[in-house]
Amino acid sequence: MIEFPKTKEFNFSNQVTEKRGKYQWMTMRGTGEVIKKWNVKDFPFDRQELNIALGYSFDTSTFKVEADVLNSKIDPDFKLAGWNIDKVVFSRQNKTYKTSFGDPLLKNGKSVYPEFNADIFISRSNSMMTLLKLIMGLIIAFIISCCIFFIKPRYIDARLGLCVGGLFTAVGNKYITDSIVPSTNELTLVDNLHLLTFFCIFLIVIHSVVSLNIIEKQTEDSVAFSRKIDLISFISIGIIFTGGMIGLTLSSY
Q1: DSSP-derived secondary structure letter, 58
Q2: What are 60-107's pLDDT values in tens digits?
Q3: Can you give the residue range of the structural domain that contains 82?
Q4: What gap in Å lies between CA 174 and CA 190, rounded to an integer?
Q5: Domain co-membership, 144 together with 103
Q6: What is the pTM of this model?
């Protein structure tokens, strides 16, 4: 008579039925694996709404359900690892299906069944620390790449070597985070932070090439101008990276 909609599997156990005056009082334990599409665009600052629905196999024309919302509670001792339970809302609604499921007594090709819903609103705990662990490799990769600004432009091999090293560090960090962050077809916060890092490293590579062309003139003015360009680029790219990191993080927070 009772079922879990939107589940891969479910079962009931420990069923007890007692006569309570004019009522039949029944209790049972239900377990199931619920199907849920996660929105992880803002991971690890994402908030999720979990829905547990109890459906009934009799439509509203033959069966009446009254939800005891006031006495429905979640166990205060229940803990969900890595998550904070922000709010739990219990409600009762009628679910309309555009089919009669072959029931000859139902008309108009549709049926209405009662449902009892428990909506659990959760948010990740220690989100900022989780993000810091995920992007630590990106910060190190950017710092490695920025070291080229303190190397003379004529040492182009050393400059490009540091950029390549920083790029490989960022790519390696991307593979690690992809194995941690739940899979999705959307660009997540972590994806955008990686793209920002790749872009900044690309700017550093372009700067190295331009700086080398300037210093090849072998004049005092070209050397001074190259050093000036190094300082301006270091500050500018540093601001882009830092501002982008903070801005993207705050937009998802």
Answers
A1: S
A2: 667 677 777 788 888 888 888 888 888 888 888 777 777 666 666 666
A3: 2-124
A4: 9
A5: no
A6: 0.74
